[in-house]
Amino acid sequence: MKIELQRKNEAVKRTFRLPGDKSIAHRSLIIGALGKGSYKIYNFPRSLDCLSTLHCMKNIGIEAENNEDGIYVYSPGYENFSKVSVSLNANNSGTTARLLSGLICGCGIEASIDGDDSLRKRPMDRVVVPLKAMGASIESSSNLLPLKFMASEKLKGIKYKMPVDSAQVKSCVLIAGFMAEGETIVIENKSTRDHTERMFKALGADIAVNENSITIKNSDITVKDIYIPGDISSAAFILACFLLSIDSEVRIEKVLLNERRRKYLDILKRMGASLSYEISKNINGELVGNIAASSSRLNGVKIAAEEVPNIIDEIPMLSVLAAFSSGTTVIEGIKELKYKESNRIKAIANNLNSIGIKVIYSDESLEIIGKDCLVNKEVHINPYSDHRIALAFTAFAMRNEGITVIDNWDCTNISFPDSLKYFKEIFDIHIHQ
Ligand code: S3P
Question: For the chain, which domains are there?
Answer without folding.
Answer: 2-20+229-432 (3.65.10.10), 22-216 (3.65.10.10)
